[in-house]
Amino acid sequence: MKLTRLLVVLALALVAGSCSKNSGGVAVIDTDFGQIKIKLDGAVAPKHVENFKKLAREGFYDGLAFHRAVPNLLIQGGDPNTRSDDRNTWGAGQPGQPNVAAEFSEKPFKRGVLGAARRGNDVNSATSQFFICLRDFPSWNGQYTVFGEVIEGIEVVDKIANLPTDPRQNLLNKAVMKKVTIQD
Q1: In order of start, what are the domains of the chain with their CATH numbers?
Q2: Residue 177 has what DSSP assignment?
């Protein structure tokens, strides 16, 4: 009986340990407008979460910007071209960045969801760029990878989404991500 209990406890500990490994941790994005905290979902999109975490830990996102904003729809960031002030290159990405294959799930696009941006209709072309959804958008379900959700700072996302943009939806003045860190 005691051995059975011990085995059950050990099995539960192993399951709990494997669940926490898949949790993904929390991304903290410090911006000019405040802080955004995003719970990363490694159980749903492990490749996207690992790519994001790797880039954050390398300091890749530090100094990049949210460059695109559509009020009540999304903000987008993570393009290395936003290190420059040439808005014509924002959103184009850089050649040679490794692609992350799509990881579609049943998770719906709703307010606060973190999604992987991609090039055109190529579902397997995600790189470093991501977007935060500001309202339910069911037509994106199963079309873009969900890999996290804002848990604090959605009002910061709203502030950025309402900044002035040009006709291409690029911000007239970029919203800089001063530092992006990962809390495991």
Answers
A1: 23-183 (2.40.100.10)
A2: E
**Per-residue CA distances from 12 to 8, 16, 23, 29, 71 (Å):** 6, 6, 16, 34, 45
- How many beta carbons lie within 10 A of that of residue 120, not counting itself? 6
Nearest to 97 by CA among 123, 66, 118: 118
Residue with tokens 């709703």: 110
* Least confident stretch, 39-48, 76-85, 121-130: 121-130
pLDDT digits (tens, 9 = 90+) for 77-124: 999 999 988 888 888 888 888 889 999 999 999 999 999 998 888 888
Which 3 state secondary structure label does DSSP give 140? helix
152: which 2 tokens? 């604090």
The torsion angles phi and psi of 155, rounded to 5 degrees, stand at -65, -30
Phi, psi of 46 (to 5 degrees): -60, -35
| β-pair type (65-70, 113-116) | unpaired
Maximum CA extent, the chain = 71
Within 10 angstroms of residue 43's Cβ, the number of other Cβ atoms is 14
- pTM assigned to the model: 0.85
Residues 6+ apart with CB under 8 A from 85: none
Helices (H), the chain: 2-23, 46-57, 154-161
